[in-house]
Each structure stands twice: as C-alpha cells, then as structure tokens.
C-alpha cells in the first residue's frame, strides 16, 4: 500500500506512510514549517511502530522528509500542566518505540536537523546525512533544558562531547558528528538517496530472524553488566545456532 500527495503551505502537516514490500517509509511532510513534527504526526508514526512491534510486516523503516530541511523540531502546543505532560509523554514513547523497534531504521537527512529532528536521526540504527546539513540542539538558547535528548544522548557519544553540544546549542558539522559517533555516514546531497537505497538493499540481504535477534541483543546488552550479557549470550547463541541448523536442513 502506498500513499502520495503534493505538498504546499496550505495543506495540513502530516507524515506520509508508505508500505512497499519489506520497507516501511515515514516521510515528514510539513515543509512550510521546517518539517516540524506535530502531535498528530507522532501519533500516526506511533501507531505504525506498535503494529510492527506486535505483528511485523516490514524489515526496514526508512525516515525521510520533503523539502529543503529534514526536521527543525517538534510542535509545542500544550499550555497547561496536563497538556504539556501529555506532549512530553508522547514524545518519549515515540523515541522509545523507534529505538526498540524490530525494524532496522534508516534516517535519510537531506537538510537541517535541529532539536527533535537531530535526535530523531540519532536514535535510528543508521543515520545518513547530507554534507550541507546543519545539526544542532538549540533548546538551551531558548531557555529550555532538553532533558528528553539528555536521557539517551550519552548512549551514543562520550560525555565530554555530549554536554557541550547540548549546553551551548551550537551547530555541529556532519563530518564532526560522524567522528564522535552521532551519525553513520556523510553523503553529497546528490548521492544521499542512492546511498540510502544501497544500505537498505544490504540490510534486506541478511537473514530476517538473525537481524531481529542481533538488534534485540545489541540494545539489551547496552543496559546490562558484562556478567549479565555473558549469561544472556549463552541462551541467545544457542537459539540462534539452532535456527541456523534448521535452515540448513
């Protein structure tokens, strides 16, 4: 199933969701407002992520955007304590669902990614970024401590890099972001889509069950001690080896 539509400033912001074989694609479609992600867009993506978590129909999640920028932040519509708390909870649920999804996620960042947008790229399994893109967490410059980002940034980059990046909110060059481990690959803008296509093809050539086990164990191992991981590895390796033997029969 696939849905396509032209986009202009008069159309309501949305995320275009495409299903094509083993690939699920989210396309941010709010270019008139810097592809800011609204609450409704988060809800739509959360619904799909929850479907895939319980009844997988795809193997790869591709996140991209229309227009000249990837995503310059998220909507902050709440004006009361209850509304702001709901917004915050939805944001955290979405990032958690994306990170823990059994799908291998690929962010295709064709332009600027700021705040939520930069974090969205980081929590994907692979983040491919155009070399002209500006990347930043500017929240502190507006007087807001970005604790949602701080809750996970330390798992991707060392504290000496992470804290100044958040604290001062200054843009970081994509090449520097790759050096410190925040993104996977820097591409010329004209090559970005082709590089993402090639990456998706590489992922799809791998055994689906092995891919899911690999991602699941990788994520859980980051939360455990060395001894815990060793104990879990025995069971995981046994199950994986049995599955491999079964495929060879």
Describe this structure in words.
With 249 residues, the protein is an alpha/beta fold. The protein has 2 domains: 14-204, 2-enoyl-CoA Hydratase, Chain A, domain 1; 208-248. The chain is built from 9 helices and 8 strands. Helix 1 (39-54) packs parallel to helix 2 and helix 8 packs antiparallel against helix 9. It is globular and about 60 Å long. The two termini are 35 Å apart.
Structural class: alpha/beta
Taking strands numbered 1, 2, ... along the chain, how are they ordered across the largest sheet?
1-2-3-4-6-8
* DSSP summary, beta strand count: 8
H/E series, N to C?
EEHEHEEHEEHHHEHHH
In short:
With 249 residues, the chain is α/β, with parallel strands linked by helices. It is 47% helix and 15% strand. It has a six-stranded mixed β-sheet, sandwiched between helices.
Task: Give descriptors for this structure.
2-enoyl-CoA Hydratase, Chain A, domain 1; two-stranded parallel ribbon; 6-stranded mixed sheet; 249 residues; 2 domains; globular; 9 helices; 8 strands; alpha/beta; disordered N terminus
Per-chain topology:
Blueprint: E1 14-20, E2 23-29, H1 39-54, E3 60-65, H2 81-100, E4 104-109, E5 113-114, H3 116-123, E6 126-130, E7 135-136, H4 147-153, H5 159-168, H6 174-179, E8 185-187, H7 192-204, H8 208-221, H9 226-248
Helix pairs in contact: 1-2, 8-9
């Amino acid at each position: 199933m696939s849905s396509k539509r032209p986009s202009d400033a008069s159309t309501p912001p949305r995320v275009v969701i495409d299903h094509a074989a083993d690939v699920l694609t989210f396309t941010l479609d709010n270019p008139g407002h810097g592809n800011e992600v609204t609450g409704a867009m988060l809800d739509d993506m959360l619904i799909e992520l929850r479907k895939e978590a319980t009844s997988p129909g795809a193997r790869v999640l591709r996140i991209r955007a229309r227009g000249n920028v990837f995503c310059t932040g998220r909507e902050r519509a709440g004006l009361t304590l209850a509304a702001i708390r709901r917004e915050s909870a939805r944001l955290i649920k979405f990032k958690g669902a994306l990170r823990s999804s059994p799908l291998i996620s690929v962010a295709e960042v064709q332009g600027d990614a700021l705040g939520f947008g930069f974090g969205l790229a980081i929590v994907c399994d692979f983040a491919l970024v155009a070399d002209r893109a500006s990347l930043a967490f500017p929240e502190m410059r507006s007087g807001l401590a970005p604790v949602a980002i701080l809750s996970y940034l330390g798992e991707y980059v060392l504290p000496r890099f992470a804290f100044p990046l958040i604290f001062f909110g200054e843009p970081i060059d994509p090449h520097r972001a790759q050096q410190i481990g925040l993104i996977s690959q820097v591409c010329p803008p004209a090559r970005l889509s082709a590089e993402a296509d090639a990456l998706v093809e590489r992922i799809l050539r791998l055994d689906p069950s092995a891919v899911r086990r690999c991602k699941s164990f990788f994520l859980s191992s980051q939360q455990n001690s060395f001894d815990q991981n060793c104990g879990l590895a025995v069971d995981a390796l046994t199950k994986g080896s049995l599955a491999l033997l079964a495929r060879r029969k």
